Amino acid sequence: MAKKKLKEHRINRDWCKGCGICVKFCPGKVLELDAMEKVVAVRPKDCICCKLCELRCPDLAIEIVEDEGDE
Amino acid sequence: MAIKDYLRERFFPHMWCPGCGHGTVLNTLLRAVEDLGLNKNDIVMTSGIGCSARISGYVDFHSLHTIHGRALAFATGVKLSRPELTLLVPMGDGDALAIGGNHFIHAARRNIDITAIVMNNRIYGMTGGQYSPLSGPGKKATTAPYKTIDNQFDVVELSKAAGASFVARTTTYHVQEAIEIFKKAITHKGFSVVEILTQCPTHYGRKNKEGDAVNMLEIYRDTTAKVGSKALTENPALLGRGIFVDKDTPEYCEEYEKIIQLAMREVA
To answer: Within 13 A of B219's CA, how many CA atoms are on the CB side?
Structure first.
C-alpha cells in the first residue's frame, strides 16, 4: 500500500473555536494553537494523514488534503 | 471536502460551544451519509428542542425542527407517508428520554424504519445545565447543587426491551467506530438506536470537575471498552461500546402496506 502523502492542512480559521481536541489527539503532534487560539499545522512533515483531526473536529474546520501525485 | 455538500454553510460557524461534542456527532454522521452515497434529497432529519436539536439546521437535507420530545412522532408521520425516504432523528438525552420518553419507546416497539440518535451529554445544556434522566446519581447540576439522587436510564437496555431491532453505543472519541455504527444503523431496516456519548464541557464538565473537552474525551477513552473485548470482561466497571442488537423483525411501514393491500382487495 502506498504511503499517504500530505499536500496541506486546509484550516478554516473562521470556524475553528480553539477547543484543542485536534492538537491533543494528533499522533504526530503536528498541530498547535496560535496566539489567536486558532489551530495551525506547525510540523506538517510529521503528518501521517490519519485524518483523526478532521474526523474529531467539532467545528468541521480542518481538512487533510492528500497529495495524489505520481504514486 | 465532499461533506460540505451536505452542509448549510451559511449558518457556520455553528452555535455550539468550543469543544462541544455535538459538532463531532454532526461531523461523523455526515461522513457516514457520504460513505453510503445517499442523495441529500432522499434524507429527512427531524429534531426536537435543545442544543442537539439545532443539528437539523446545519444539514442540507429536508429538515423539520419540531417541538420538544416529539421529533420521533413527526418522523413517524413522514416515514408512513413517504416510506422511501431515509429518516434521521438526532435527539438530546432529555429530549429523547424525558420529554419524549413515550414517543421513544413506542417508536421502538413499532420497529418503524427510523434511525434515532441519542446525543447523550447527560445534561440539559441549552437551558443552563439542569440534570437529565441520563445524568445518573451523584452528579452535580444547576438543579442539583448537592448532587443528584436519581438513577439514570441505560439507553441500550431500554431500547432492547422496547423492541428496537438495532441498538448501538459509541462516543465522540471513537470517531471511526461512530462512522461505521451510523452506516450500519442507517442501512438497517427497522428502528435503529445509536447512543453517542458527547461531551458538554460548558455545563456537565465544569460542574462535575471533568475538565475541558479534551479531558472529557480522555474519560470516554478510558472508561469504555468494545463489547466482546477482553478489557470489558475483565473489568465490568467499564461501559460497553459497539453493536448490542442487530436483528430482522417485521418493519412497521411494510406491515402497514400489507394492511393497505388487504383492505383494497376487500373493497374490490
So the answer is: 16
